[in-house]
């Protein structure tokens, strides 16, 4: 089996040199999916995985724009249209200086499986730019977004490719891009998700990824007769996913000890309560400040510069910052400190070594493509509401989100039974694969 897997990976590597994040995402999937394919007559010999790792289309374009000071700026824009077997391409846009093809291909590849797991008809895609919104004025962000959308508009559409937010792309950026798309097309359509509530957005979309992670963790815990109530939780990140994961954990009776940003983390041994979380939300969303300011407001808390929070003893860890933020030694520290569950809020936050540490321990480990699927799931519900020209209530969307997270958990149980216990990595990869593979087989070699 190892030889088949290694041969496959060498073939993919040869065609995708210098794309480490993409190769990391591919190897994590093929380790569990190839043994399954070999055991299933209908998939064996069809080269389905080889087709899945090749994007259907990659678009790369120049984004030239004039900043407030009158200087001409040039960024690079991308859209990776990875797989449309079960629906139009769907996935976020990331604006971050480290964005490159490797990162967007890893994200688009993950998105295929994640979207399939939601049970909604969405294919996989991802896009973005190396533009850095941090520290930029609203005017500069608007000008960049307008220029970016001027090119992207010709490639997307409500039945073709529906982008959304990701790191660096929140409601402000979605607003500017939607405005420009509408202006170019003279059409008011649901071409982006994560829209504002008065212009086609869905209730609970902002909360969905973070809430969904906590629902998924609760599902894993209930399956072993436990609950999140009363547990200590370490959260990394302080963006959209981290904020609402913390909020839901607090509502469900857990004690949230940490949050972080790319500069460091804050530790509050009394727990970050609703009021303190409101302070963080205002700091990050409106003032666009740094997490270290928290200790000025709440002097009993401490700030650790340049560090991640994984050495803080906790029962539950929720990495919500970015890829490869939780390494093998961090996983060892969590295991040593008796952590019982890890739910990934970010995409691929745990590296290969960390995942294997978790899988070889008693920790319940939920990979992002299962546990952070709530965001794109509610994006799917936003698309449905846009088509119906109707909007559902908060309660309706939240209930639907809970059912979807529950269904994803069940799919992981169905496909992830191991010798001793459930392997959620295997379960998520195979359940996602089966749905997309069946559609690809039915549609012939395309
Ligand atoms: N960027 C989010 C993700 O990683 C959401 C994508 C979407 O809503 O289309 O799933």
What does this protein structure show overall?
The protein has 446 residues and is an alpha/beta fold. It contains 16 helices and 12 strands. The strands form 2 sheets. It has a 7-stranded mixed beta sheet with strand order 9-8-7-6-10-11-12, with helices on both faces. The protein has a 5-stranded mixed beta sheet with strand order 1-2-4-3-5. Helix 2 (20-39) packs parallel to helix 4 (101-117), helix 7 packs across helix 15 and helix 14 (374-388) crosses helix 15 (394-415). It is globular, with a radius of gyration of 21 Å. It starts with a helix and ends with a helix. The mean pLDDT is 97.
Instruction: Kindly name the structural category.
Output: alpha/beta
Q: What is the percent of helical residues?
A: 40-55%
Tell me the fraction of residues in β-strands, as a range.
15-25%
Main sheet properties: 7 strands, mixed
Counting DSSP H or I runs of 4 or more residues, the number of helices is 16
Walk across the major sheet and give the strand order: 9-8-7-6-10-11-12
Give unreliable regions as ranges.
none
Q: How many beta-strand segments?
A: 12
**Topology pattern, helix = H, strand = E:** HHHEEEHEHEHHEHEEHHEEHEHEHHHH
How does the overall form come out from the CA principal axes? globular
What's the N-to-C terminus distance?
A: 28 Å
Bound molecules: glutamic acid
- Using only C-alpha atoms, the radius of gyration works out to 21 Å
Mean pLDDT across every amino acid position: 97
């Amino acid at each position: 089996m190892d030889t088949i897997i290694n041969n496959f990976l060498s073939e993919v590597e040869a065609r995708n040199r210098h794309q480490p994040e993409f190769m990391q995402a591919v190897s994590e999937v093929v380790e569990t999916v190839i043994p399954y394919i070999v055991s299933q007559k209908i998939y064996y010999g069809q080269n389905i995985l080889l087709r899945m790792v090749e994007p259907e289309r990659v678009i790369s374009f120049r984004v030239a724009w004039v900043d407030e000071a009158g200087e001409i700026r040039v960024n690079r824009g991308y859209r990776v249209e990875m797989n449309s077997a079960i629906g139009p391409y769907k996935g976020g846009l990331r604006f971050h200086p480290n964005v490159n093809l490797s990162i967007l291909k890893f994200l688009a590849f993950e998105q295929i499986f994640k979207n399939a797991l939601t049970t909604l008809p969405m294919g996989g895609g991802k896009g973005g730019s190396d533009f850095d919104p941090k520290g930029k004025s609203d005017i500069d962000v608007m000008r960049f977004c307008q220029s970016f959308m001027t090119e992207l508009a010709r490639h997307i559409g409500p039945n073709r490719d529906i982008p959304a937010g990701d790191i660096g792309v929140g409601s402000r950026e979605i607003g500017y891009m939607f405005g420009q798309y509408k202006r170019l097309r003279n059409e008011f359509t649901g071409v982006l998700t994560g829209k504002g509530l008065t212009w086609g957005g869905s209730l609970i979309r902002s909360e969905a990824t973070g809430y969904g992670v906590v629902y998924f963790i609760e599902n894993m815990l209930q399956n072993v007769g436990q609950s999140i109530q009363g547990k200590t939780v370490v959260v990394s990140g302080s963006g959209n996913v981290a904020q609402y994961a913390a909020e839901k954990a607090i509502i469900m009776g857990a004690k949230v000890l940490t949050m972080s940003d790319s500069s460091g983390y804050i530790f509050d041994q009394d727990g970050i309560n609703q009021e303190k979380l409101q302070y963080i939300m205002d700091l990050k969303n409106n003032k666009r400040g740094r997490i270290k300011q928290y200790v000025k407001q709440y002097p009993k808390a401490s700030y650790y510069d340049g560090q991640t929070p994984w050495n803080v003893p906790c029962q539950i860890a929720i990495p919500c910052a970015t890829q490869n933020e939780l390494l093998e030694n961090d996983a060892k520290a969590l295991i040593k400190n008796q952590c019982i569950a890890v739910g990934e809020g970010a995409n691929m936050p745990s590296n290969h070594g960390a995942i294997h540490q978790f899988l070889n321990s008693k920790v319940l480990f939920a990979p992002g493509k299962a546990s952070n699927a709530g965001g794109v799931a509610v994006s799917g519900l936003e698309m449905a509401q846009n088509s119906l020209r109707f909007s559902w209530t908060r309660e309706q969307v939240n209930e639907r989100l809970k059912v979807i997270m529950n269904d994803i958990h069940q799919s992981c149980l169905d496909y992830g039974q191991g010798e001793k216990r459930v392997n959620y990595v295997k379960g998520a990869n195979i359940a996602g694969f089966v749905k997309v593979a069946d559609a690809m087989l039915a549609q012939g070699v395309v």
